[in-house]
Amino acid sequence: MKDWTDRAGRLVRPALVDRVDRDHRQPDHEFRRRRIVVAITLVVGATLLGISLNVPPDSVAFYPLTFALAATWVVGGFASGPLHLGRIRFRGELRRPIVIPILLGLAAAAVFIVGAVVVREIEPLRETTENVLAFARYGSLPLIALITVVNGIAEEIFFRGALFAAIGTWHPVAISTAVYALTTVATGNVMLVFAAVLLGLLLGLQRRASGGILGPILTHCTWSLTMLLVLPPVFAAAG
Question: What is the pTM of this model?
């Protein structure tokens, strides 16, 4: 048991705990500009997010709205200033975080799926979750999967990229997670807000450790695709 714990620690620490030394500081005027761009993007993005997830599940407007949302996060993210992919120290070398973030995404999805088995038995929470899953059931699955990946990448470019950098050094993990969750409040869906808190914390820790967005992108997309494919059958089984 201790051997497995040690192995897990060697995998998790580089991705979530141990920080890689880097200097991503910006001049004051560039930092102020980043914050202004981030603030404007947040307002526009939260508005589009709320609209996109409040249209009927079978509405054709859902697709252009979600792609517009992704474009907002991406444009705002890159317009705010430099972004970095990040590296982690693994086995004595600095490497791009690839395998470990994917494994973290699968592990996070497993935890959420176990939670979903409980949630589906609680009527108010079940109904709230079903409102989100309806988009997967009524829409084209390949297109929904594409939207899931595109928006996962876009959110990380903005939230763990531009926003995280705009916060500075004072509790960026906690603040970026809180802002991510508050943005999700615009959907009016308590389950999405809850998911944003847990997922945002995991992604924020990766961003802090690696100094970049590659790890969070891979974890986010892995988690999102797994949830997209697994949750509808889980809830259908209880129907």
Answer: 0.91
- Asked whether the beta carbons of 219 and 203 are under 8 A apart, the reply is yes
105 exposed, middle or buried (CB, 10 Å; 0-12, 13-18, 19+)? buried
Q: Where are the alpha helices (DSSP H) in 120-171?
A: 123-138, 141-155, 164-167
Burial class of residue 175 (count of CB atoms within 10 Å of its CB; 0-12, 13-18, 19+):
middle
CA distances in angstroms from 222 to 86, 142, 219, 229, listed in the order given? 18, 15, 5, 11
Locate 53 and state its tokens: 């997830």
Q: What are phi and psi for residue 18, nearest 5 degrees?
A: -70, 125
Tell me the pLDDT of the chain (239 aa) as tens digits: 556 666 667 778 888 878 887 767 788 889 999 999 999 999 999 999 888 877 877 778 888 999 999 999 999 999 999 999 999 988 778 889 999 999 999 999 999 999 888 887 878 777 777 777 777 777 778 888 999 999 999 999 999 999 999 998 889 999 999 999 999 887 777 888 889 999 999 999 999 999 999 999 999 999 999 998 888 888 776 65
